[in-house]
Specification:
- The chain has 64 residues and is mainly β.
- Helices cover 0% and strands 45% of the residues.
- The mean pLDDT is 96.
Length: 64
């Protein structure tokens, strides 16, 4: 139903790059498993409405 009205989930899967326009970094990680600025954990999903952020995704970001 929400998709019909223009609500879409923000891509924040593990390994994708952090985008400050649509993600909120809550924690930092220091892992050699991921590249710099890669998302290592999605804490809360985010959503857009007609390409405007209504709730940013809350994520954990890797910093080397």
């Amino acid at each position: 139903t929400l998709l019909k009205h223009g609500v879409k989930e923000i891509e924040s899967s593990i390994g994708t790059l952090f985008d400050p326009a649509v993600h909120d970094a809550l924690m930092m990680d220091n892992s050699t498993e991921f590249e710099n600025n890669a998302i290592t954990l999605c804490i809360q999903k985010g959503y857009t409405l007609n390409d405007r952020v209504i709730r940013p995704a809350k994520v954990k970001v890797n910093k080397i």
